[in-house]
Sequence to fold (140 residues):
Amino acid sequence: MAAQLADSQGAENSLMYELSRSYKIEAAHDLPHAPVGHKCRRLHGHSFLITVRVGGAIREPEGWVIDFGDIDAAFEPLMGELDHRYLNDVTGLSNPTSENLAAWIWARLEGELPSLKGIEVGETCRSRVLFNGPDEEDRG
Fold:
């Protein structure tokens, strides 16, 4: 279907897609650099919703950008490091803000998922951060 659509537009494989896979973790943290008296400086927990976004053109003959199972396989080791953990104890997350958590996840997945487009971390039903990777000049 996608190839037919692309053919009908005269641009085979030029259609770009973005897809996502979400994971829920339960974890505790405190934010040691929050101002004194700030509620997030105290130990507390969240049901984090982490969404991995990838993108690209449809691969043939599969007819997909990436197998969702490949995203699961890349994320599985992170689940073991993050779920039901005290995030401050995870190497590289001594200040586990949602922003730092998203960047940490990106750094761990970018070699596994070359089509990685973004990491979204939701710490509450109203608060989320989206990290789209380092600036081009910072990518070396």
